[in-house]
Design goal:
The complex is a heterodimer of chains A (about 375) and B (about 350).
Chain A (H helix, E strand, L loop, with lengths): L5 H15 L13 H14 L17 H14 L7 H13 L2 H12 L5 E4 L15 E5 L2 E8 L10 E7 L10 E7 L5 E6 L8 E12 L3 E2 L5 H9 L3 H4 L3 H17 L5 H29 L9 H22 L17 H8 L9 H12 L5
Parallel strand pairs in A: 1-4
Antiparallel strand pairs in A: 2-3, 3-7, 4-5, 5-8, 6-7
Helix pairs in contact in A: 1-3, 3-9, 4-5, 8-9, 8-10, 9-10, 10-11, 10-12
Chain B lengths: L3 H11 L10 H6 L8 H9 L18 H13 L6 H8 L8 H4 L5 E4 L15 E3 L2 E10 L6 E6 L2 E6 L5 E7 L5 E11 L1 E3 L4 H32 L1 E2 L2 E2 L4 H30 L3 H30 L10 H11 L6 H11 L7
Parallel strand pairs in B: 1-4
Antiparallel strand pairs in B: 2-3, 3-7, 4-5, 5-8, 6-7, 9-10
Helix pairs in contact in B: 1-4, 4-7, 5-7, 7-8, 7-9, 7-10, 8-9, 9-10, 9-11
The chains are: A alpha+beta (about 375), B alpha+beta (about 350).
Chain lengths: ~375, ~350
């Protein structure tokens, strides 16, 4: 596939997606649970397209970053749901880079087969923006580690059967340097999951509690105190996805639907606002293109990629706010208008709210920009 | 006339049912239930005289003014009270004396059904007609309609009282984001009692009272958020010590203060001015500001809370969802800005 021209590759992907994507889960309103998205996961796995970024020898496609972006772009264009992708995006690349042969041989095939569904144990109630201050403790006890603590925002924890966990392995070390990276089965005694209802009344996330959870030393990936740098490196070029114009472009299309339904799509005052959003989306797409080209050249984007995240998420929110303005009283309703998923102003508004918080709040992104890009003092 | 002592007493009296320090447990428990409020609390509110606050004394009310009512609804907003006082009070002042006793006692809930399309302040667009003791048409966005016993329907030239259970009355309720409900009332040759009257002034008061409710909403969630910034720590410091959050907070405070000043001034204009256009312009200014500011402040408070603000278990979300329902109710900011422009054209000032 890597031999095809970008355009030819795009058409191949498009044709396959159209022919194979389960129509009943197109453009879902909420993040899908495993039983809802597994049909798509298995389709991808069967085709060999589940892990585009993994090397071929481990069952991946060995695809260049540029072609990976084209693939994602086509998935989004068709309204494909996100699968439960932590094994594909995080655990696989981590083990390929830092795992032992035994870990790779055991875990990678089970990601490819869908036998292992992974969730992420990073954030804690008191370690959000300041993740490195995490307090979950992994203490060595003979051949085992014993883990105690609490994680929050474990996405899809109710569906997952494995969790990857950042836990403190050295209480004395500097905060970034005493952290280990552990792979733990969710059915290990001592793990409790409590679903966390979000503002849009969805149970995508959970709190996960570790009470004397005993795991063998082989659950550790790499060196005991090197978990932080491994976790950080994993973010790599994925950070660019948060700044992809897909959310804003999707919201803009829904704003148009809504305006038509409300009978104001030709009103001058609406068109003024709509055009502003539209230009913002177009310009964001150009800025995103600059980073895509970087990735295509094989470069890893620097801290300036935070600009994408800030602009995209705030644009997404502005469009959500315009939707409420257009919807009037309909924007206060719990269900989409007339049962039509495309007319869901309140849902879209609510879903846009956390985008300026997750993946590093926009305040943190602006700090990164002023410190690491502008090199301002302080 | 209402003096400062009256307003203070009203605010204090509200604390029994709508305490500023409440943990919002009752509010959470009532969300997404039918009818979405508590009739026992409703009776208590009626016993406190709240429903009759604006009803003349000779009809069993307190005969107080808009400032008094707004002082009360601001407190209700701060406590996110779901009982439909604003709507029911709009109907109560339009009912004839002989229909009032059981309404004022809280035994019978009559809610106004005035709106016929979204983003509108028109009371009777001609979509609902009364003739020969029957009413036919459709009314939308009746707040907390699931708890109504009867509806006071606006029609050209007057009002028609319709029993909820009467033949030809079809009520469909949609759940609202705050966990309440909104009714679409379809009337098909339904039996109705004619009532002389004009709901215009009552609608203006409802707009004002909703502005004040939104003021309470934003003021309380802002207070909760400032408390959070003083206690939550990240990077070894209280997060309120970070300048990025300080500036955001200052901006929200400006919005709350603008809304308070505008709502208070507009309420005073209602009580003291006889100039109808001036009064309406003041109402529109208040509702436009209150709707916008409530949106800015509730959204900002979610952001200042970070991830926890995006959970349903955290309180800021309750305030955001209330804003989503009330910012567009009784005319959105855009509707009221347009009305203000029409009522107070540029160059018309002294």
């Amino acid at each position: 596939m890597d031999d095809l021209s970008d355009e030819a590759f795009r058409l191949v992907v498009r044709a396959w997606v159209v022919a194979n994507y389960p129509p009943e889960i197109r453009n879902p309103l909420k993040r899908l649970h495993w039983n809802e998205c597994k049909s798509w996961y298995f389709k991808l796995a069967e085709k060999g397209w589940l892990c585009p970024g993994w090397p071929v020898e481990y069952g991946g496609m060995g695809l260049s970053p540029g072609k990976q972006l084209i693939m994602l772009d086509e998935f989004e264009r068709h309204g494909c749901a996100r699968t439960i992708d932590q094994g594909v995006l995080m655990v696989g690349p981590l083990l390929i880079a830092h795992g032992t042969d035994e870990q790779r041989a055991f875990f990678l095939p089970k990601v490819l087969s869908g036998e292992h569904i992974w969730c992420q144990g990073y954030s804690e109630p008191n370690a959000g923006s300041d993740l490195a201050s995490l307090r979950t403790l992994a203490e060595r006890d003979g051949d085992d580690y014993v883990i105690n603590g609490q994680k929050i925002w474990t996405s899809m924890a109710m569906d997952a059967n494995w969790i990857y966990v950042l836990a403190r392995t050295d209480r004395q070390a500097k905060k970034q340097e005493g952290i280990g990276f552990f792979l733990v089965p969710m059915d290990t005694p001592g793990i409790t999951v409590r679903p966390l209802m979000t503002l849009d009344l969805n149970e995508e996330f959970a709190e996960t509690f570790f009470d004397n959870v005993r795991v063998p030393a082989s659950a550790l990936v790499g060196q005991p105190n090197r978990g932080w740098s491994m976790a950080k490196a994993l973010l790599g070029f994925e950070r660019i996805f948060v700044g992809s114009p897909k959310q804003s472009a999707y919201a803009l299309a829904r704003l148009r639907d809504l305006a038509e339904r409300m009978g104001i799509s030709e009103d001058g005052s609406f068109l003024k606002v709509f055009n502003r959003h539209r230009l913002d989306v177009e310009d964001l797409t150009d800025l995103y293109g600059v980073y895509v080209e970087q990735v295509q050249r094989g470069e890893i984007p620097g801290p300036d990629v935070s600009m994408l995240k800030v602009f995209q998420t705030e644009l997404y929110q502005r469009i959500g706010e315009t939707m409420l303005d257009v919807a009037g009283e309909h924007g206060g309703m719990l269900e989409p208008m007339e049962g039509n998923r495309a007319l869901n102003p309140a849902g879209l508004f609510l879903q846009s709210r956390p985008s300026t918080i997750y993946s590093g709040t926009n305040e943190i992104q602006r700090n990164i920009l002023s410190k690491n890009v502008l090199e301002l003092p302080g | 006339m209402t003096n400062a002592d009256d307003l203070r007493m009203i605010r204090e009296s509200a604390a029994g049912i709508a305490p500023r320090t409440s943990d919002l447990k009752r509010i959470r428990a009532l969300r997404f239930t039918e009818p979405g409020f508590d009739r026992t609390v409703w009776r208590e509110m009626c016993e406190m005289g709240w429903l009759g606050l604006l009803v003349p004394e000779d009809q069993g009310g307190s005969g107080l003014g808009v400032q008094a009512f707004c002082a009360l609804t601001e407190e209700l907003g701060a406590a996110l009270i779901p009982e439909p006082l604003i709507a029911a009070a709009m109907a109560a002042r339009l009912l004839p004396s002989d229909m009032l006793p059981d309404v004022m006692a809280g035994d019978r809930i009559v809610l106004p059904a005035w709106q016929e399309k979204p983003l509108s302040l028109d009371l009777a667009d001609g979509g609902t007609m009364f003739a020969g003791g029957r009413v036919t048409g459709k009314k939308v966005f009746v707040p907390m309609a699931a708890g109504a016993d009867a509806f006071l329907v606006t029609v050209p030239g007057g009002l028609a009282l319709v029993e909820r259970g009467a033949a030809g009355v079809h009520l469909e309720c949609q759940t609202t984001q705050d966990g309440g409900n909104s009714g679409t009332l379809t009337l098909d040759n339904a039996h109705a009692v004619w009532i002389d009257g004009d709901a215009s002034a009552a609608l203006e008061t409802a707009c004002m009272a909703t502005s004040a409710y939104l003021l309470g909403v934003m003021d309380r969630v802002f207070g909760i958020t400032m408390e959070y910034l003083k206690t939550r720590e990240q990077f070894g410091r209280k997060i309120g010590s970070f300048q990025a959050l300080q500036h955001r907070s200052a901006d929200l405070k400006i919005q709350v203060s603008l809304a308070r000043a505008t709502v208070n001034a507009a309420a005073k204009t209602q009580d003291e001015s006889g100039d109808s256009a001036l009064r309406k312009a003041a109402v529109s200014r208040a509702k436009a500001r209150a709707s916008d500011a409530a949106s800015i402040v509730t959204r900002g408070c979610i952001q200042l809370h970070g991830g926890i603000g995006y959970t349903d278990a955290a309180d800021p979300g309750l305030f955001l969802r209330k804003m989503m329902v009330l910012a567009p109710a009784y005319g959105s900011a855009a509707v009221h800005r347009a009305r203000f422009r029409d009522l107070a054209p540029v160059g018309d000032e002294d």
